[in-house]
Amino acid sequence: DVKVTQSSRYLVKRTGEKVFLECVQDMDHENMFWYRQDPGLGLRLIYFSYDVKMKEKGDIPEGYSVSREKKERFSLILESASTNQTSMYLCASSPTGALSTDTQYFGPGTRLTVL
Amino acid sequence: AQSVSQHNHHVILSEAASLELGCNYSYGGTVNLFWYVQYPGQHLQLLLKYFSGDPLVKGIKGFEAEFIKSKFSFNLRKPSVQWSDTAEYFCASMATDSWGKFQFGAGTQVVVTP
């Protein structure tokens, strides 16, 4: 089974702090994604990566950056956390192939609260 | 820009009732379409997907969805629900000329009562 793990289930940070959210997948997938999930808004794509050191902006990249130094790891960075970044953050990975969008495998999520 | 809308935010129904969840996407080009489900306390997982071919697709746990291109719709159906179908359901699309940029709907919370 594909396993996508996220470093924390719950995180509480203060406004202005730099926050790192880590995601690791164990299936050698090329593609990795970061979303935030908010009630009534569904999932919104922040960034994705289709290869090591490659990244693409999603719909809401402002206030976030990402890092992918190794294939299995994709980090989301909040440079200066703000209260409006309080949310559930979901990481996903997917393979590349003829049907490269076949399935995204999601992690359990990190619920971040910014005070 | 593409977007996805789901018709209902909350649905409550009894066991054995039929379920239909509406999903419409807005994009004039070719899209891949998905339904994901999130059971309480669990990860999001894929229910079914449509890329091309037969517009009626079958997924896991007895779910099916029909792609109607003229209506820009991809509605999810199940003839007879069980209590274990209580979950949040998300419709998603990805335009084939915008690889990786998935759009998710707001989700529909489904509660099945015994």
How are the secondary structure elements laid out?
The complex is a heterodimer of chains A (115) and B (114).
Chain A: E1 4-6, E2 10-13, E3 19-25, E4 31-38, E5 42-49, E6 56-57, E7 64-70, E8 73-78, E9 87-94, E10 105-106, E11 110-114
Parallel strand pairs in A: 2-11
Antiparallel strand pairs in A: 1-3, 3-8, 4-5, 4-9, 5-6, 7-8, 9-10, 9-11
Chain B: E1 3-6, E2 10-14, E3 19-21, E4 23-26, E5 31-38, E6 44-50, E7 56-58, E8 64-68, E9 73-78, E10 87-95, E11 103-104, E12 108-113
Parallel strand pairs in B: 2-12
Antiparallel strand pairs in B: 1-4, 3-9, 5-6, 5-10, 7-8, 8-9, 10-11, 10-12
Helix run count of chain B? 0
Shape of chain B: globular
Please, how many domains of chain A?
Answer: 1
CATH superfamily of chain B: Immunoglobulins
Helix and strand element order of chain A: EEEEEEEEEEE
Give the helix level of chain A as a range of percent: under 10%
Rg of chain A (CA only): 13 Å
Mean pLDDT of chain B: 93
Residues in β-strands, percent of chain B: over 45%
* Tally of DSSP β-strands of chain A: 11
Spans of chain B of 5+ residues with little confidence (pLDDT < 50)? none
- Protein structure class of chain B: mainly beta
Spatial separation of the terminal alpha carbons of chain B: 41 Å
What is the mean predicted local confidence, pLDDT of chain A?
92
The biggest sheet of chain B amounts to:
6 strands, mixed
Describe the protein's architecture and organization.
The complex is a heterodimer of chains A (about 120) and B (about 110). By secondary structure, chain A is mostly beta strands. Chain A has one domain (about 5-95): Immunoglobulin-like, CATH 2.60.40.10. Helix content of chain A is about 0%, strand content about 50%. Chain A has no helices and 11 strands. In chain A, the strands form 2 sheets. In chain A, strands 2, 4, 5, 6, 9, 10 and 11 form a 7-stranded mixed β-sheet that branches. The radius of gyration of chain A is 13 Å and the shape is globular. With about 110 residues, chain B is mainly beta. Chain B has one domain (about 5-115): Immunoglobulin-like, CATH 2.60.40. In chain B, the strands form 3 sheets. In chain B, strands 2, 5, 6, 10, 11 and 12 form a 6-stranded mixed β-sheet that branches. In chain B, strands 3-9-8-7 form a 4-stranded antiparallel β-sheet, with no helix packed on it. Classes of the chains: A mainly beta (about 120), B mainly beta (about 110). Chains A and B meet through strand 4 and strand 5 of A and strand 6, strand 10 and strand 11 of B.
